[in-house]
Design a protein that fits this description.
heterodimer; A: 1048 residues; mainly beta; 5 domains; B: 141 residues; alpha+beta; Lipocalin; 3 helices; 8 strands
């Protein structure tokens, strides 16, 4: 613009000079219009290098007296230049003016006081080489100028300039700029004396078009109807300009194809100073109103050198309605605001300070203040209101370190929710980084319309919280989460989330997040810290329910996205109550607390180590009617995992301990509940070490301690599970324990307990209870020894005291090794084997000793003995009884008679032979005297059992003065075949008397018979067969009594 | 009269004594081929009651015979894979067949049974129980 005014002034001066020259000619030569016109034409031709035409020149004197006036009609200057929009440089319908003739005459000065231009057009053109079409004055012709005119000077003292209907076109190809003024009318009052100008310009509405640049960078401004009052004063190099366009004018602004303003209504008022020599400009005030949006500007702009600008400007925008701003958004950017409706008042203030050139950019400070905003967007189901913001922007394109955006406050309210954001954004030009604090109070139900329907999710409740974020754009682009700084605290109240089939509810829960972890327990877990504090948390899905009450869960993790390194995690939890249910399963835990951690192993960083520390005050688990309850349960465990191993048992290596107090197990599969008053177990890959385990089962109460070893090899299937335990009990129900442990380790047994038998010949038992349906199946795959010490053992109705010895279970074989027992009438020792190769084919082998027992009690204890040796009923007194019986049993423990083998011996002294019909009959046939005492001095019986046959080896019965050898067989069907040979008698008979006793118990036959053992106990007389029988008998007796432990 | 009565008693006692004394003497000196005994036999009176005599030991304990009665739901495999119950060692001396049954509780073959073979062919076995004198018959299977 400065250049334009310069050109305009020069043009005006040139024109005035031409006119003054014309007036001078008229004044000095001819004053008639024709002559004056001719003279002017002639002189114009001399002065001007371009084609000119002047229709008429008229000098006035009287009408402008005392000033000399001149009027030129239809003046035309034509200067053809390539590229110029027009050949016409100047076309004026009327040019008039007056000058002071006295000043001319007295001071040889030409003083123009009035000038008017009417109906004209000026077309100024400068080509790209800088050639101007107004350069129309030829070189001075000193020879043609009179000598006395050399002192003549032109002194412009312009008091009045009137313009009417003047069009001005200015095209500068060198600057790539064009200005078009249309219908310029106005007046200039003031003085232009030489270089001093003090004018007041009143411009009537006119149009102005401005264009600079080309293509997409073409900046175009259209001003229509601009009426302004301009005051300008210039003295020397100092100028003052005041401009006021109080009446609205239209302003359009575009760049390339993008129109930024379209006929915006504008008003302008400004006051400025300029120091042209220094190239410095000061704007005291500039008030621009654009579509009734006021903008204030003040400051200085200096151009100390060519192409350099130093600005110190400050602007103010005060409460611009946002809706008007949106209406002014260029069409090119309309898509960005499509569907957006906003109101509110936007105020701004700012400064632009600093140099601007090819190497420098000024520092821009902008403050934005938004008040009472309301935003509605078609993507939002609600209106944002009370949008208030206070944002500061500092931009120095050359110094990023001081450039920032500071959000002092940005608050948004939804119908029932609100957000507040504050913080800064820096590193604006390279990698914008935000450090923001966001506070929010959200009614979660308001978010439901924004959740995609296919997520099938609804939210209820409130969320109050604060989140701090320190994140850069590059971190987001690269997802460098580990470099981000995020922290926050979210408080959920009356939360109710429905996600598909998952339901989550909480009256109050707090979630705290921090990334990175501010207080990592280990260097590895510095990536993230999360904490959940919940008064109550209910989760439910597909029939599963879980509830946490007063829960505090801390979680610290490493960067789980790192696929190279093994992730680390530490979770601490402390929960007042936990409840979970699924179908008929219910679990309730009081006071669960502990730590779960996962970390790389020290010696193998690629593999994880899992640590668990857990304890609770109460545990209750129910499955239907089955119930498990415990107090003070705890688990401390470290588990090493090795994924390189193919076998599961090698992959997982656990160590640790667990225990509980007051345990109670009640299950339908158990005939009696199990109580565990105390238990503590340590475990490792190789062994379980039961430090103490007290157990109560109905009438059984025992303590177990010891070790279970060989676990690793057992799980691999390479070896038996070995155990060595001390079993101490005050009272033990043996049958209950057998029922409880029956079938452990036997897959077929456990399977068959639940389903029909397999293809074996086993008939399906009636499914009543486990104990009566199935026999005791000895656990397989284990080799466990119990060192038993039982004060009272019960087996059915029998109560046995002081049971001591070893009970060993080895891969399907149960062995009682020299178990000593006591009953009120007898001391017992028993070694027994029990095997269960299949359900209907059991084996029982018993080596049983009663070392000092009343015979009648012995028969009561072992009723089967009466069947094996019915003659015992005839004796009374104490005896030692030894028995070894082997047999197979069916599933109901019935003896398979075809497999029954055994041997037994009875040693007694001073027995009493009970009087009875059998004895009477035998005594009569053996001719016992009637006064024979029925006391048996000694009895040493050995008998064997084979199937249903009981063979009684020859035994000597000594009674009073009689001795008889008894031998023979009886069968389990109670049929007999005995021979009783009398070997000593006081009768001194010449022959040996014997009696055969045969038949059934109900119908015995007694008959005299040949003595089978007449010399049996007379060594000198024994025959070979008799000796063999005695050897066999002694062998059996020795075998039976071998290993009998003598009571101390 | 008294003299007659004493004589009668004396004669009766003498007769009885003679009878008792004279009953003891006879012995069976028959011998049988043990090879004929080897094999599987089934009781004639109790079908399903099987006995097998081996020429060489059939288990690690040295048993040379097994017994099983299917009526008790016992199979030969049960015996051979079991702990020795129902296994035995047998010997044949002339007509005397001795079976020593294995007693698991003792870990020894120490339960004897004595029989006297009456008939032994490739298809038929008969022996007498030495205690009761009862006969038992078997057919080869």
């Amino acid at each position: 613009m400065r250049k334009f005014w310069k050109i305009f002034g020069v043009s005006l001066g040139s024109l005035a000079g031409v006119l003054l020259a014309a007036v001078a000619v008229v004044m000095w030569i001819v004053l008639t219009p024709n002559k004056l016109t001719s003279i002017v034409r002639t002189q114009a031709a001399k002065f001007l290098t371009c084609e000119s035409r002047i229709d008429r020149v008229e000098a006035t004197f009287f009408s402008t007296f005392p000033k000399f006036g001149l009027r030129v009609d239809n003046m035309l200057l034509i200067n053809r230049m390539a590229g110029a929009p027009s050949d016409t440089l100047l076309r004026v319908g009327e040019v008039g003016g007056s000058f002071d003739i006295m000043a001319f005459l007295r001071h040889d000065r030409i003083e123009i006081s009035d000038l008017r231009l009417i109906d004209g057009r000026v077309c100024i053109f400068t080509d790209s080489a800088g050639r101007a079409n107004y350069d129309i004055f030829g070189p001075s012709d000193t020879t043609s100028v009179p000598a006395d005119t050399s002192a003549l000077s032109l002194y412009a003292n312009l008091n009045y300039l009137a313009l009417k209907n003047i069009d001005v076109s200015y095209v500068d190809r060198q600057s790539d700029m064009g200005v078009e003024l249309r219908s310029l009318s106005g007046r200039v009052d003031g003085a232009m004396k030489g270089e001093a100008i003090d004018v007041a310009v009143t411009i009537k509405p006119f149009d102005l078009a401005f264009l600079t640049g080309s293509g997409d960078e073409a900046l175009k401004a259209d001003i229509k109807g601009l009426a302004a009052r301009v005051t300008a004063a210039m003295a020397g190099d100092t100028a003052r300009v005041g401009l006021e366009a109080a009446d609205p004018f239209s302003l359009s602004l575009s760049m390339g194809k993008d129109e930024y303003l379209h006929e915006a209504t504008a008003r302008l008022r400004t006051q400025a100073w300029a120091d042209l020599a220094a190239g410095s400009y000061r704007i005291d005030s500039l008030a621009l109103t654009l579509n009734e949006l006021p903008l204030g500007l003040k400051g200085t702009v200096a151009m100390p050198t060519e192409g350099a600008i130093v600005a110190d400007l400050a602007y103010t925008i005060n409460e611009w309605p946002v809706e008007r701003l949106l209406a002014m958004v260029p069409a090119a950017y309309a898509s960005y605001t499509e569907g957006l409706t906003a109101t509110g008042l936007l105020s701004s203030h700012g400064t632009v300070i600093g140099p601007y050139d090819e190497e420098h950019m000024p520092v821009v400070n902008v403050g934005l203040l938004l008040k009472n905003g309301r935003v509605r967007y078609h993507g939002l189901p609600f209106t944002l209101h009370d949008v208030n913001g206070d944002v500061e922007v500092c931009a120095d394109l050359q110094n990023e370190s001081i450039s920032y955006v500071k959000v002092n406050r940005l608050a948004v309210r939804m119908p029932h929710s609100s957000f507040r954001v504050a913080g800064t954004v820096d590193r604006l030009y390279t990698d914008p980084r935000t450090d923001l604090t966001t506070d929010f109070d959200i009614d979660l139900s308001e978010l439901n319309p924004m959740i995609p329907n296919d997520l099938n999710t609804t939210l209820k409740g409130s969320l109050v919280g604060r989140v701090r974020s320190n994140v850069s754009m590059s971190q987001i682009d690269k997802m460098d989460v580990e470099k981000m700084r995020l922290s926050g605290r979210l408080t959920f109240k009356e939360l109710d989330v429905q996600y598909d089939t998952l339901s989550l509810r909480s009256a109050r829960s707090v979630v705290e997040l921090a990334m990175p972890n501010p207080k990592p327990a280990t260097p590895a877990t510095k990536f993230l810290f999360a904490r959940l504090l919940s008064d109550d948390l209910h989760a439910e899905t597909n029939g599963m329910t879980a509830m946490l009450a007063d829960a505090a869960i801390d979680l610290a993790v490493s960067d789980v996205r790192d696929t190279v390194r093994m992730p680390s995690m530490i979770a601490n939890f402390k929960i007042d109550r936990l409840y979970a249910a699924m179908d008929t399963i219910n679990v309730a835990i009081a006071g669960p607390a502990g730590t779960v951690s996962v970390a790389p192993q020290r010696n193998n960083q690629e593999q994880p180590r899992l640590s668990l520390k857990y304890n609770c005050s109460n545990l209750l688990a129910m499955l239907g009617n089955d119930k498990v309850e415990a107090h003070n349960a705890f688990v401390n465990s470290d588990i090493l995992y090795n994924s390189n191993e193919t076998e599961f048992v090698k992959q997982i290596i656990p160590r640790g301990s667990f225990g509980l107090e007051n345990g109670h197990i009640a299950m339908s599969s158990l005939q009696y509940p199990i109580e565990i008053p105390a238990m503590k177990v340590a475990f490792s890959p190789q062994e379980f070490n039961i430090d103490r385990a007290r157990v109560k089962i109905d009438r059984s109460d025992f303590s177990l301690s010891g070790r279970l070893t060989n676990l690793y090899r057992y799980i691999r299937g390479d070896s038996l599970l070995k155990g060595d335990f001390s079993f101490t009990s005050d009272s033990t129900d043996v049958s209950q324990l057998m029922s409880l442990t029956s079938g452990i380790g036997d897959a077929s047994a456990s399977t068959n307990k639940q389903s029909a038998p397999t293809a074996s010949t086993e008939p399906a038992p009636a499914p009543t209870t486990a104990s009566d349906t199935w026999p005791f199946m000895v656990p397989k795959g284990v080799d466990v020894t119990l060192h038993a010490n039982v004060r009272h053992g019960m087996y059915g109705p029998t109560v046995i005291s002081n049971i001591n010895g070893d009970v060993r279970v080895r891969d399907g074989v149960l062995a009682l090794d020299k178990l000593t027992l006591s009953t009120p009438g007898a001391d017992m020792q028993m070694t027994a084997l029990y095997e269960s190769p299949r359900k209907n084919h059991l084996f029982a082998g018993i080596d049983f000793h009663l070392t000092n027992v009343e015979i009648d009690q012995m028969i009561r204890m072992i009723p089967d003995l009466d069947e094996l040796m019915p003659m015992l009923r005839s004796f009374s007194g104490k005896a030692a009884f030894h028995m070894a019986i082997d047999t197979n049993l069916d599933s109901m423990y019935n003896v398979k008679m075809s497999t029954l083998h055994g041997s037994a011996s009875i040693d007694g002294k001073d027995l009493v032979l009970m009087d009875g019909e059998t004895f009477t009959e035998i005594a009569k046939m053996l001719m016992f005297k009637k006064n024979t005492r029925n006391k048996v001095d000694s009895l040493a019986a050995v008998f064997t059992v084979y199937r249903n046959e009981i063979d009684v080896y020859p035994l000597l019965v000594a009674m009073d003065r009689y001795k008889a050898v008894v031998a023979g067989r009886h069968n389990t069907d109670m049929t007999f075949d005995y021979n009783i040979s009398l070997v000593e008698t006081p009768l001194h008979l010449p022959f040996n008397v014997a009696v055969d006793v045969s038949g059934s118990i109900d119908k015995l036959k007694y008959s005299l018979a040949r003595s089978k053992y007449p010399e049996f106990y007379r060594p000198a007389w024994r025959r070979e067969v008799e000796n063999k029988q005695l050897e066999i008998k002694q062998m059996i007796h020795n075998a039976l009594t071998r290993g009998v432990v003598k009571k101390q | 009269m008294k003299t007659r009565r004493i004589f009668a008693v004396s004669a009766a006692v003498a007769t009885a004594a003679f009878a008792l004394i004279s009953c003891g003497g006879d012995k069976d000196e028959q011998t049988f081929d043990r090879a004929l005994l080897v094999g599987k036999w089934e009781s004639v009176s109790t079908p399903g009651d099987f006995y097998r005599y081996y020429d060489t030991p059939c288990d690690s304990r040295g048993a040379t015979g097994t017994e099983w009665y299917t009526g008790d739901s016992v199979t030969e495999t049960d015996v051979l894979t079991g702990n020795g119950n129902n296994t035995l060692k047998w010997s044949l001396d002339g007509a005397k067949l001795t079976k020593m049954y294995y007693q698991v509780s003792h870990g020894a073959f120490d339960l004897p049974k004595y029989y006297t073979i009456i008939e032994l062919t490739s298809t038929m076995l008969k022996y007498k129980d030495d205690v009761t004198g009862s006969l038992k018959s078997f057919v080869k299977r």
